[in-house]
Amino acid sequence: MLARQRQAMILDEVKKTGAVRVSDLVDRLGVSDMTVRRDLEVLARRGLVEKVYGGATAVVGRSTDEPGFEAKSVQQLPQKEAISALAAGLVKPGTAIGLSAGTTTWTMARYLADVPDLTVVTNSIRVADVLQRNERPDRTVVLTGGVRTPSDALVGPVAVHTLRSLHLDMVFLGVHGMASGPGFTTPNLNESETNRALVEAGGRLVVLADHTKWGTVGISTIADLEDADVLVTDDGLSQDGREFLAERVGELIIADVADDGLSGTGGETA
């Protein structure tokens, strides 16, 4: 098992239980005490857990907390892969789409490699890099420009002005949280304004959000739940959450996470 996969599993356990013990992780992961301690040290340096004697505890979040891109990239890896695979299947050849900044949309960008005649607008340097690596002559990648945030989004007046002049067939939006009142949210006020402009530029809105985003609230709303034509999440979402969201979004797609935790195995529509 790779270090990133171990760390993702540790984070999932911390999120579920609030705390983990080194001894329990050694048994569960089948690695040495020193390996677990190194993983915890990495996660603590990224601000994802709080190290305590014999283990680690969850970090109490705030509505303005915004982990950096590297910190978020190790969270919910299997879920992001499964969600991204299904979301990419919604993209048709010959269309113009928008991808917001974020680790889930960054993951999704890899799944677009075989879609022909595609125009992609993004405010993410990371997403643009993935798309341009394919070097397809039939692909156009438009980077909005703007001021860089901790999550590697480009935001501000330049990005907003660019997006307001465009018309896209579909927009894929990654979010920090989704909740019954605030809707889809972000902890960054500038990023919220830019994402709203991206949403307004799209004919259809597809939101990508793993189950841990349910009940999480950032300081600023990007869009209401009802604004999502499609919400793609994973099978870790509670039954109550599924029922609530299915009544509000246009279509709820649930990605199945494979038993090995490495890929999606399909999905269901709720």
Q: What does the model show?
A:
The protein is of the alpha/beta class and 270 residues long. The chain is 37% helix and 26% strand. The protein contains ten helices and 16 strands. The strands form four sheets. An eight-stranded mixed β-sheet has the order 6-5-4-9-12-14-15-16, with helices on both faces. Strand 4, helix 6 and strand 5 (118-122) form a beta-alpha-beta unit. Helix 1 packs across helix 3. Residues 259-265 have low confidence and may be disordered.
Summarize the structure.
It is built from ten helices and 16 strands. The chain is an alpha/beta fold and 270 residues long.
Short key terms for the protein model shown above:
about 270 residues; alpha/beta; 8-stranded mixed β-sheet; 3-stranded antiparallel β-sheet; 10 helices; 16 strands; globular
Topology:
Blueprint lengths: L2 H15 L1 E3 H8 L3 H13 L3 E4 L2 E4 L10 H5 L3 H12 L7 E4 L3 H8 L7 E5 L2 H9 L5 E5 L3 E2 L5 E2 L1 H8 L3 E7 L2 E3 L3 E4 L2 H13 E7 L11 E4 L6 E5 L4 H8 L5 E6 L6 E6 L1
Parallel strand pairs: 4-5, 4-9, 5-6, 9-12, 12-14, 14-15
Antiparallel strand pairs: 1-3, 2-3, 7-8, 10-11, 11-13, 15-16
